[in-house]
Amino acid sequence: MKLEKGCISGWEFLFSVFCFMQGTMLRSGFIISVTRNDSWAMAFTGLLLALPIVGIYAALLYSFPGKSLIEIDDIIFGPVLGKAVSILYLFFFLSLCALNTRDLGDFVVGYMMPETPIAAINLLFLLVCVYAIYKNMKTLLRLSIVFCILAVGAIVFNFILILKDVQVDFLKPFFRLPPMKYVQGTVSVTAVPMGEVLAFIMLAPMLKKSQKAGKPLLFGLTSSAVFMAVVILRDIITLGPLVSVVSLASFESVRYVSLAGVLTRMESLYAVVLIILFLFKVSILLYAFVLGLSELLNLKSYLPLTLLSASLVFFYSLFVFESVMENMNWGASTAPFFSLTFEFLLPAVSLLVACLRKVNSVSEVKS
Amino acid sequence: MRYFQKLIWRFKEQNKKAKKENADEAEKPQSLSQELKKNLDAVTAEFGESCDLVVREFSFGKDGKIKAALIFLDGMANLPLINNNIIKPLMYDSRFFRTEETTGISSIGELRDRLLSVGDVKVVSTLYEVMGACLSGDAVLLVDGFCNALDVSAKGWEKRAISEPNTETVVRGPREGFTENLRTNTAMLRRKIRDPALKIRTLEIGRRTRTQVNILYMEGIANPALIQEIERRLKDISTDAILAAGYLEQYIEDAPYSVFQTIWYSERPDAIAGKLMEGRAAIIVDGTPFVLSVPMLFMENFQTAEDYIVRSYYASVIRFLRLSAFLISLFAPALYVAFSTYHQELIPTSLLFTMAASSEGVPFPAAVETAIMMFTFEILKEAGIRMPRPVGQAISIVGALVMGQSAVQAGLVGAPVVIVIAITAVSSFVSPYASDAISLLRWVLMILAASMGSFGITLGTLAILIHLTSLKSFNADYFAPFAPFRPADLKDTAVRAPLWSMRTRPRSLRPQDLKRQNFDIPFDPAAGNGGNQGEKP
C-alpha cells in the first residue's frame, strides 16, 4: 500500500494541522514558566517567527508537487547525500513520536491512572495509533474536523464556565521581563509546536492540490496560534501567579469550574479531548516515520513496518526520560535547538541547494 | 527437455479445448422436440415422482385432431384461470370457429393470438424454460407437432395478506408493510412512486432455489455506477440457495468483518420509497418481507419513517434522544466500571457513599458484577425472542423478580449495577438497527474500562470512530456527513431540519440529480408556494 494521492481536501488538511497543533497544548507549561503572564503574546510572536519556516516548506512543496520529503531530498542532494538527510528527518520524526508518547504517558499516569505502569498506557495508545494507520491515514485526517469541533467546543465551553472566576488584573504588569526571556519564549513556541508541521510535508501528496499546501498550513497554524493564545490567556487570568508553579496550567485552570455544584470536574472532559488530540498527533508522526522509512527502503507497502516502528517508538518512549522533571528541563532548554535543526536548518539548506543547483521537478523529468 | 515441455503444453491446451467444448455442450439447453410424447417424457423424467406435477393431456380442433398437454404444479397455479381461460377456449370455444381456421394452425403463436384469453403468454423453446415456468407457477401448453411451447402466466399460490409491519410501528404513517411475495412488494412501491423512471431490474440467484431478486432504483436520480456495482456483486454470487434477504446481504456487503451492518433494511414501503427518492437502490428478494436498501450511512441507524412525518422540532428531539440512548447503551456499563474502579473522585461524594453502601458485602469487583449482569441480560433477551409465546409470562417473572430483585437482596450484585444494566438494556432497544453492533462493542469497552479506566474507554471510542470512518457502503462513505464533513448533509442527522429546507438530496450518495426542490424560488409560506412548486406564477 503506497501513499494514496489526492484524497484529502484543503479543509481537511487545515483542520488536521489545527488538531496537530492543539495536541501540543500541554507544552504551554514550558512557555509559561519562561515568560509568565505575558505568555499569551508568545503565541503570536511565535507564529510570526514560524511564518518563514512555513514559507520554506510551502516553497519546497510548490517546486516539487506530489513529492514527499524523502523524494525531495533525493532530488536535491542526490541519491547518497539525500538518503543521509532523509535519515536525519526520520530520526526527528521518531524522536518526536516517542517524546509525545512519553508526554501522554506522563499525563495519564499523573492525572488519570496513578497506579498503572506507563508501559501499559503507552502500549495501548500505540496500538490504537497502529490501528489508525492500518485503516488508512485518510480516515484519521477526515476525522480531524470532528476532533477539531470537539477541541474548540471544549475550550469555548470551559472558557464560558470559568468566566466568573477570572481576574483580568492578573495580566498586569505587561512586558516587564528581560527581553531575552521573550526571545526564548518565542523560539520555543516556534520550535516545539509550530515547526512540527514538518511532518505534514510527508502528508502533502495526499492533498487534492498538493502544490497549494502552503495555504492550509498557514491558516491552520494561524488559527491554532489564536486558540493557543486564548488558552494561555485563560490560564493566566484564572490562576494568576500560580500559573508558573503548577505543572499543567490548562488542566488546573479548568478545575476551577464549578456550576451549582453539579457541573464540576470539567478537567476529565479536557483530559479526554487531550488524549484524542495526542492520538491524532502521534499517529501522524508515526505515519510520517513509517512512510518515510518505506520510501527510503523502496518498499511496496508501509504496512509491515507499522507495527515494528510502533514497538520502536514504544521502547524509545520508555527510556527517553527518567522523570517528569527531566522532561520539563528538556522542553525548556534543549528542545528548541534540537527541533529547529530539523525544522529550519535542514529545509532551508535544502531550498538553498535546490536554488543553487537549479533543480526542480521539471528538470528532473527532463534528465 | 524442451521437447517435453512443448509436449506437455500442447497436451494442456488440448485438454483445455476439450473441456471448453464439453462445457459448451453442457450449457447448451436441451430444446423441445416435435413429438408431444417425447416432451412429456422428458418433463416427467425431470420431476420424477413428485406428486404435485399435473399433466393434463387433451385434444382439440376439428375432430379433436390436435393433441396437446398442459403442465403445471398443483398449488402453485391458479386452477380457475387454467380451467376457464386455457382449457375451455381450446376444447370448447375452438369448435365454433370455421373449419379452415382451426384445422391448420401454422404456428404455436397463433394459439396465443387467437384462443388463449390470458394476459401474459410467452413462447418458450427449451426444456429448461419449461421447467422454470412450471416451477414459478405458470402453466405450460405443449402441442403435438411443434417444437416450442406456450408459457401461460397462471401464478396463483396462497400468500399472506398485506398487514401492518411488526418491527417498525409508527403513529401517523401508513400501516401497510411488505409481504413475502415479490410482485406485491414491487406493486406497493409502484403505487407510492408513480413515475416510469422507477426501474425494476430482475435477476435469478441461487442455482437451485432460483430466487427472484429485483433491483429497484429511480433512473435519473440514482447514480448509474451504483446500480452497476450492485448488479456486479449480485452476479458474482454463486451459491445454490438464497432463502432470505439476509443471505444475500452477507454475500454483497462491503465489510463482512465489521460489527456494523452496511446494508439497511425496512419492512415499510414508505421508508423504502423515501430511500429510492434520495438516490439509493432497493433490493427485493422473493420470500422476504424485508427490503434491502443501499448504500447505507451510519446515521440511518437512527432514522425512522416517522421522523419525516411529524414536525421537525419534535423529530429533532426524538433524534437526539435516540442518539443519546445509543451512547448510553454503548457506554453505561463501561463508565460505571471505570468510575467505580478507578475514578471514584469523579463521582459526587453523596452518590459515592450510597454506591459504596449498596455494594458492601458484594463478593465481586465491579467489573465482574457488571459482566454477570450483562450476560444475564443477553440470556434474557435471547430467551424472550426464542421461547414459545405461552411461556412468556414465566420468563418475565423469573427475569424481573428472581434475577433482579433477589440477586440484590441476596447480596450477589449491588443495586447500582442492576440500574445501570437496566438503562443499558432499555436504551439498546431504542435504535434496533445498531443494537447488534452495540451488544458486542459494549463488552469490548467494558473490558477496556476494567483494565484501563477512562483512558481505555477513550481509546476504544477512538478506535470505533476510526473504524466507522474507514467503512464504505457501496462506495459511499459510511460515516458520511461527519467524516468526510459535508455541512449540507447535516440537515438530516442529529437534528431533522424542516422538509422544505432540505433542498438537495444527500451528497454522500452521489445522486445523479442533486436537486430535490427548485432553488430559484424563495420559500415563502405566506404565498403558499411551498418553495417547490414548479414555475413561477
Assembly type of the shown chains? heterodimer
Helix content of chain A: over 70%
Poorly predicted regions of chain B are 529-537
Q: Quick one: biggest sheet of chain B?
A: 5 strands, antiparallel
**Tally of alpha and pi helices of chain B:** 16
Radius of gyration computed on alpha carbons of chain A: 20 Å
What share of the residues of chain A does DSSP label as strand, in percent? under 5%
Please report the total strand number of chain A as a whole number. Answer: 0
Structural class of chain A: mainly alpha
**Gross geometry of chain B:** elongated
Estimated helix fraction of chain B = 40-55%
Strand content of chain B: 5-15%
Task: Give the termini separation of chain A.
Answer: 28 Å
Biggest contact: A-B, 29 and 23 residues
Distance between the termini of chain B: 89 Å
From the structure above, extract its key features.
heterodimer; A: 367 residues; mainly alpha; 14 helices; 0% strand; disordered C terminus; B: 537 residues; alpha+beta; 5-stranded antiparallel sheet; 11% strand
